[in-house]
C-alpha cells in the first residue's frame, strides 16, 4: 500500500473514533479529496459537519484552506476577494484581490451552502468545475485566471438548489459527493461524544505528497472490463428506477472509483469500488436508500451480505429502544438474548470482512456495519442495564 494511503487509512480510523457514527462520511470525504472532487454534507444543525471537515483539512500539512459562512446577503467578493480599487482607477480593470480567499487556496469549506445567494452560486460555477476565476488577465491575454483549488467541502441543512434556479441546479451538479449526517443515534456513542474531546489529528499527510498522489498516482489507476460491464448494469438499473443521472455526473465518477481503489491499496479499480457511487447518484435525499441498494447490489456481493446483516442489527436496535420501559428483571433476560444475537452477527460480519480483505475487495460498507454492531452492543448494556459504555471493551 502506498505510504499516503496508509496515512489516510490511519486518519480515517482516528477520526472515526473521535466522531462516532461518521465513518462513511469520513471515507467519502477522503475519497473526494483523492479524486479532486467536491463534497457536500446534508444534515441538521449541531451534527459536527464543519468540525469534521476542518479536522480533515487540518491533517493535510502545508495546504492552504479557506472557510466562509454563506448567507443570502453575503456578496461574491467575500468568497472571491474584494475588487482592487487601484486596478479600477489605473487600468479600468475589475480584478479580485484573491490572496487569502478561495481562488488562492487548495481547499475550501463553505458552511451553510444551501443558504448562499444566487450571485455567489453563479460565480462559483467556473471555480468548481474548471478551476478558473473569470477576470481579465491582460498579461496572459485571457479573460480568466487558473486557480490552485482542488476540493471544496460544503455543509447545510438544506440542499443548495430550490429546483427553480438553473444556476443552483448547475451548482449542485458540480458537487458529486453527497453524504447525510444525522444526530448520533446510540446512547453509548452519544456519551462518548459528550465526554470526548475534539483534538487536532495525529495522523497527518504532507500536502506535497498528497498532491503527487492526486495529480499522478490516482489518475494512473487502471479500469477493467468487468468494472465497465457492471457500470453499464448500474446505469440500466438507475434508468429503470426513474432516477436521472447526467453524463457529467457519470464522468465525475471515474476519478472517484480510482480514488477508492487507491485508498484500498490497489492499482486497479475493482467491482467493489462501485459502492462509493452510493454517495454520488442521488439528487433528492428521498432517493438515498434506493441508490444505496442499487449500487451495493451491483458492486459487491460481500457488501450486500453485510447489508443483510445490518438489517438484523437494526432489528435488535429497535428492540432495545422498545424495551426501555420494561421491568428490571425482564431487561436482564432480554440483555442476554440480544447480546447473544449480536455476537452471532458480529462473527458473521467479521467473516465477511476477512473474506473481502482476502480478495482485496472494498471493505468500506462492511466496516460501517461492523461499527454499527459495536454501537448497538454498547447500547444494549447502556440502555437496558444502565452500565457505563465507556467501561465496556467493545
Descriptive account of the structure:
Helix 6 (118-129) runs parallel beside helix 7. The strands form three sheets. A five-stranded parallel β-sheet has the order 3-4-7-1-8, with helices on one face. A two-stranded parallel ribbon has the order 2-9. Strands 5-6 form a two-stranded antiparallel sheet. It has helices spanning 3-18, 23-34, 49-58, 77-80, 85-91, 118-129, 166-173, 187-195, 207-217, 225-240, 247-263, 288-299, 301-322, 328-359, 364-384, and strands at residues 39-42, 60-61, 65-69, 107-111, 132-133, 145-146, 151-156, 177-180, 205-206. The longest helix is centred in the last third of the chain and has 32 residues, at 328-359. It is α/β, with parallel strands linked by helices and 394 residues long.
Features:
two-stranded parallel ribbon
In short:
The chain is of the alpha/beta class and 394 residues long. The protein is built from 15 helices and nine strands. The chain has a five-stranded parallel sheet with strand order 3-4-7-1-8, with helices on one face.
Amino acid at each position: 500500500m502506498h505510504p499516503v494511503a496508509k496515512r489516510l487509512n490511519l486518519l480515517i480510523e482516528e477520526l472515526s473514533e473521535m466522531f462516532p457514527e461518521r465513518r462513511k462520511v469520513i471515507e467519502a470525504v477522503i475519497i473526494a479529496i483523492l479524486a479532486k472532487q467536491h463534497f457536500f454534507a446534508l444534515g441538521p444543525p449541531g451534527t459536527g459537519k464543519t468540525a469534521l471537515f476542518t479536522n480533515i483539512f487540518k491533517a493535510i500539512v502545508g495546504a492552504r484552506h479557506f472557510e466562509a459562512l454563506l448567507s443570502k446577503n453575503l456578496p461574491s467578493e467575500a468568497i472571491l476577494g474584494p475588487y482592487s480599487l487601484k486596478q479600477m482607477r489605473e487600468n479600468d480593470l475589475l480584478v479580485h484581490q484573491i490572496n487569502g480567499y478561495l481562488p488562492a487556496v487548495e481547499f475550501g469549506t463553505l458552511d451553510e451552502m444551501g443558504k448562499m445567494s444566487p450571485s455567489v452560486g453563479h460565480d462559483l460555477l467556473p471555480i468548481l468545475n474548471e478551476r478558473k476565476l473569470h477576470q481579465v488577465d491582460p498579461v496572459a491575454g485571457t479573460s480568466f485566471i487558473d486557480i490552485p483549488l482542488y476540493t471544496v467541502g460544503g455543509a447545510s441543512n438544506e440542499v443548495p438548489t430550490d429546483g427553480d434556479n438553473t444556476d443552483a441546479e448547475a451548482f449542485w451538479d458540480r458537487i458529486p459527493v453527497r453524504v447525510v449526517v444525522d444526530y448520533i443515534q446510540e446512547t453509548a456513542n452519544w456519551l462518548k461524544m459528550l465526554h470526548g474531546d475534539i483534538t487536532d489529528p495525529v495522523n497527518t499527510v504532507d500536502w506535497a505528497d498528497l498532491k503527487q498522489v492526486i495529480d499522478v498516482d490516482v489518475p494512473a489507476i487502471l479500469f477493467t472490463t468487468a468494472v465497465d460491464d457492471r457500470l453499464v448494469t448500474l446505469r440500466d438499473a438507475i434508468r429503470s428506477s426513474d432516477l436521472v443521472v447526467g453524463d457529467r455526473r457519470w464522468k465525475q465518477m471515474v476519478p472517484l472509483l480510482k480514488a477508492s481503489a487507491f485508498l484500498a491499496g490497489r492499482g486497479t479499480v475493482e467491482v467493489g469500488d462501485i459502492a462509493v457511487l452510493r454517495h454520488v447518484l442521488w439528487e433528492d435525499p428521498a432517493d438515498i436508500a434506493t441508490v444505496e441498494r442499487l449500487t451495493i447490489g451491483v458492486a459487491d456481493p460481500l457488501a450486500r451480505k453485510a447489508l443483510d446483516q445490518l438489517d438484523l442489527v437494526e432489528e435488535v436496535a429497535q428492540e432495545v429502544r422498545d424495551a426501555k420501559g420494561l421491568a428490571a428483571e425482564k431487561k436482564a433476560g432480554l440483555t442476554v438474548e440480544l447480546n447473544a444475537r449480536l455476537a452471532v452477527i458480529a462473527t458473521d460480519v467479521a467473516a465477511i470482512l476477512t473474506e473481502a480483505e482476502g480478495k482485496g475487495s472494498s471493505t468500506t460498507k462492511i466496516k460501517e456495519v461492523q461499527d454499527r454492531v459495536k454501537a448497538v452492543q454498547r447500547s444494549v448494556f447502556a440502555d437496558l442495564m444502565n452500565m457505563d459504555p465507556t467501561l465496556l471493551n467493545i
